[in-house]
Amino acid sequence: MIVLEQLKLLVNLARIDGEMASQERAYIINIGKAHGFPESSVETLFYSSHEAIIANELTPDQKFKYIFNLVQLMKLDERLYEEEIKFCANTAARLGYKPEVMFELMLKVKSADMSSDEITALQNLTAQYLK
Length: 131
What we know:
The longest helix has 17 residues, at about 60-75. The protein is an all-alpha fold. It contains 7 helices and no strands. It has one domain (about 1-125): TerB-like (Orthogonal Bundle), CATH 1.10.3680. The protein is about 65% helix and about 0% strand. The chain has helices spanning about 1-15, 20-35, 40-45, 60-75, 80-95, 100-110, 115-125. Helix 1 (about 1-15) packs antiparallel against helix 2 (about 20-35), helix 1 (about 1-15) runs parallel beside helix 4 (about 60-75) and helix 4 runs antiparallel to helix 5 (about 80-95).
């Protein structure tokens, strides 16, 4: 259920500013569909906030995907809200990252598609911030 918990975190982030943009919905739906969740199942998550559960047994790769997807979603609407940044920073800390990881992510994560080489380089960089 790791992907389901990640989807719930993404929904919580998208709801922070009080408005879920269509591109945020599409982003979350695409992540769900990529992991075998039907679109209708993902859409049911949009109607409420969820308890922010982060599994203890996440691998470094899974931790990176969590935080990468959160930051990319946050940057998707090209407006950064203080509450969104705090949410991402709090989640990064709960994932075991040092606070400085947010600086790297904010600078390097793009709202548009990133190449696999860019993502791998960012993953290697952020691994240095895991406690």
